[in-house]
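Subject: sequence -> structure tokens, single chain

Hey, anyone have a minute? Need the predicted structure for the following. Not urgent.
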Amino acid sequence: MDRPDYKSVGKSVRKKDSMQLLLGKPVYTEDIVHDALVVKLLRSPHANAIVQTIDTSKAKAVPGVVDVYTWEDVPGDRFTNAGQTYPETSPYDRLIIDRHVRYVGDVVAIVAAENEEAASKALKRIKVTYEVLEAVLDFRTAKDNPVLVHPEDDWHMFQDFGGDNKRNLISCGDDGSGDIEAVLADCDIVMERTYHTKAYNQAMMETFRTYCEMDRYGRLHVISSTQIVFHVRRILSHALGIPKGRIRVEKPRIGGGFGAKQTAVSEVYPAFVTLKTGRPSLCVFTREEAQTCGSPRHEMQIKVRLGANKDGRIRALHVDTLSNTGAYGEHGWATIGLTGHKSIPLYTGSLEAYKFTTNVVYTNMQPSGAYRGFGATQGQFAVETTVNELAETLGMDPIALRQQCIVREGMAMPAYYGEVTNSCALDRCLEHCREMFDWEAKYPVRDMGNGKVRTAGVAISMQGSGISGIDTGSATVRLNDDGTYMLAIGAADMGTGCDTILAQMVAEHMECPVDNIYVFGADTDASPYDSGSYASSTTYVTGMAVEKACDQLKERLCAIAAGILACDASELQFEGDCVRRATTGQTVPLTDIAEKSQCNSNLLAEATATHSSPVSPPPFMVGMAEIELDRETGVVEVLDYAAVVDCGIPINPALARIQVEGGIVQGIGHTLMEDVTRTPKGKIRESSLFTYRLPTRLDTGRLNVEFEHSYEPTGPFGAKSIGEIVINTPAPAIVQAIYRATGVWHRELPVLPEHILLAKPEG
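Reply:
Had a minute. Here:
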């Protein structure tokens, strides 16, 4: 498609911090720590219990121990750890320490000590007696179970989503359009299938960690590995019972998050210790704590009813999702919506009716939270696998089937809040990927000898670009004395390169090199408000704030220059390195404008803008996987994965490609390797990276990523998001390929070699 020839946007500019990373110089949370108390947490060995007695005297007597805190020492007001906009959609169901522990790993006591050794020794000397209660460990039986995970009377939600803690229910919903039962009854084929996905861990390199200190003004200064500095400030204010103005939160470099750090997992414990002692404190989660007490993907059961004609036209879809939020309700309601609203609309082109029903329930398991894909991953695994099964049943090419059913540009999507696809290249993505992958050659089942076969599968996906009508992004752009610019943002770069992408936008608008843009963020004292880096919002939402700020700054610079030239600002034009008066040819360099703004001036050479969008234009993606399956061992090897993505106009193609490749690798891990199992008493078995198997580059075969450009008129430079959609296609594509190799559909993830060997064809 035709588009302007930009100088910075659309170019593969290297990341702002790339050299720092290569040289090992980035500053992470622990690099800032000095003379801090070590904070460690005593955790419950029981899934559901009441602390009857707790003796901390021997622990306090350990040399180097400063104090030990229990449920009796903390504030009694409930809060949520969910990093969402306010008022939160998650229930207020937590205390810093609760006498009622609700999962294996729930916090029983906080130890603050001068060093690691003393803290660890103290943990072993705390004596606790428990009244062990029956636990709810099967989320399928949690709703209206006589055993209540949250029996307390002070449980509450700000918004009514059908939640009732006396039913173990956080939310329930029923959405639809058309007469689903009538359309299903009229269909030639009706398929009903049930799928199950596990509570996958993000397994980011840097575990949860937070450093706290009291600043020179007596305020709580929090430095944390987080995606949500402003939300953390609010969460701590609620939990600790102090005004938000007394709290400053900033993030240094983050060693990965993938959504886990959209939840305030570690922050409250050192914050409480620092408030109590007045001393700096540091809490670092071990890998075991991160795996068993973190914020994993929601386990879900998804039932799909699909109605179609013999020609492959999909006429009806009913998605019914049951989500296991675990012991606390972070992101429970927000996540489940995407299982239907990001899967059903893909088939808008032929759909006559849809229904989407949901239930989010409490259990006595590890609490879940945000993870890349945020519910769409689970829902699309179910719907796309059912569509692939339909194609196999009809003997149709699954690409041809989809081409007659998919959403196309200009269509209104009833199942996606009625939004219209202003930009959609999904049809072109399908054809592009087919050709790039060599589908006709790889799709047939090929016997390679020695019990090995090769074949392929396909899936499509859509996501969003921020949360429509909710997410807010802000940016401040300031002219520096030397003619360069400072960009201040509240979004958090987690390795995604958003600092660089937003800097490219500033450079394009201000007509200067990207190297002339310096980026600062995120700090609640200095950054403009931003919802944070999640929900694929940064490029689209914060990017539009950057555009607005640049436009305002150019007007401001012209106004300052008008004072210098003693003319009206309407006579002036911004030209990158100067402001020009068209009638006379006079110019004012940026450095002169900067100097003027600092002396006898009523105008600052800076602008701040905020943006929130009423829509969330979806990016689209097609993924195709070629596998080799060993029928004797059940081992699946991914040989080739091709992906074509429509993210509008990629601001930085190299960074966009890296996002896609990383998401595909994670998706392959979800499908073939990563597993979460529990003992009969609710303890997670996979508590380390030795037992929780992650994919390496050697497990992922050849990755080939290309783009089909569309132009999103509501996005900056025509851009949409890319961060989340990239994880959604591997599972259904690989599962289809496994079926073609074995004749068995696997409807539970992960699909391990033993599952393949033991499975029998249906019927």
